[in-house]
Amino acid sequence: MEAEDESTNTTQVNVLSDPFLRIRERMNSKIAELSGRLGFLAKEKDVLGLGKGLRKVSQAPTTSLVNESRIYGREQDKEKLINLLLSYDYVSGNNVSVITIEGMVGIGKTTLAQLIYNDDKVAQHFELLVWVYVSEDFDATRVTKTILESVTATVCDINDLNFMQAKLRDRVKGKRFLFVLDNLCNENYHDWNLLQAPFQYGAGGSKVVITTRNTTVASIVRNLPTYCLQPLSGEATWLLILEHALGNRDPISVRNVEELDKETAVRKCHGLPLIAKALGGLLRHTVF
Ligand SMILES: Nc1ncnc2c1ncn2[C@@H]1O[C@H](COP(=O)(O)OP(=O)(O)O)[C@@H](O)[C@H]1O
Ligand SMILES: [Mg+2]
Predict the structure, then answer these.
(1) For a tag on the chain, would you pick the N or C end, based on fewer CB atoms within 10 A?
(2) 39 Cβ neighbours under 8 A, 6+ residues apart
């Protein structure tokens, strides 16, 4: 009887001496699980490379609206790109500058493009602003139609590319525009040339911003140096994990939060906000 009491006491003492042991173990196993689920990224030879082998990842369409309550660690990227957008490009001699934002899936290209598209200075600078989500199966007619409908604010019933391009040319003529083509994957030079033909009629200072995970696409379409988006910093990654793990709760008020293994969690995310969000979400459901 005495021995039994003793062993019970010992167990209690162990648990009390490291009350966070289980939470740490669970968190580490969740991180391992997540790493497995996102193996398609981790298996990349160079996980921070630019998307080779990731072409089959399908994505939901995007819009110009930022859908995150908080964006972490992109202040400098935003500032640099906005400066580029507001400047004239005398170097290339083109009326229309094509800027590519390049980086692997989930690094935050679309989010950054949304941030600059919605900036007040940018909105004031351009007369026409259009956001187009370009799906995997690129179609010049569809993209042209989306742009035309957006600049005319009317539905276009005629699907003839020639007709639509002529209309678009008339609409952009002498106007300073910003078109964002989000997620362009098509490597065909002819398709790009076809699509951008009416763009050339825009006023000087017009810009086309293209997000792509494909280096070849970037080299085909751009006429300014590409903007290679870098992974998030460790601190920004951590803040993003915490936001999704804790929701609106103040970290100070959440028990055990200081026991999370910050270093491991941040390392596993490779600076990709897509993974940081997924990890935070998993922790929210399983740990807190
Ligand atoms: N800096 C950031 N702060 C917070 N969330 C971000 C940030 N960058 C991206 N995200 C979120 O991460 C996910 C992936 O970002 P996204 O812009 O779609 O990546 P990409 O276009 O490069 O594939 C999205 O859910 C987005 O809202
Ligand atoms: Mg994207």
Answers:
(1) N
(2) none
pLDDT in tens, 58-96: 567 888 887 667 899 999 999 999 999 998 765 566 789
Query: Domain spanning 75-228: which CATH class is it, in words?
Result: alpha beta
pLDDT of residue 208: 96
The ligand minimizing its distance to the Cα of 269 is 1
Does 53 have pLDDT greater than 90?
Answer: no
Predicted local distance difference test score (pLDDT) of residue 29: 73
Distance 261 CA to ligand 2 centre (A): 29
Give residue 149 CA to ligand 1 midpoint distance, Å: 27
Environment class of 280 (CB within 10 Å of its CB; exposed 0-12, middle 13-18, buried 19+): buried
Give the CA-trace dihedral at 168, 174, 175, 180, to 10 degrees. 60
Mutate to test the pocket of ligand 1, among 68, 217, 272 (most ligand atoms within 8 A of CB): 68
* Closest atom of ligand 1 relative to the 59 alpha carbon: 23
Instruction: Answer whether residue 18 shows pLDDT above 90.
Output: no
Domain boundaries, the chain: 20-48+233-286, 75-228
Among all bound ligands, the one having the nearest atom to the CA of 66 is: 1
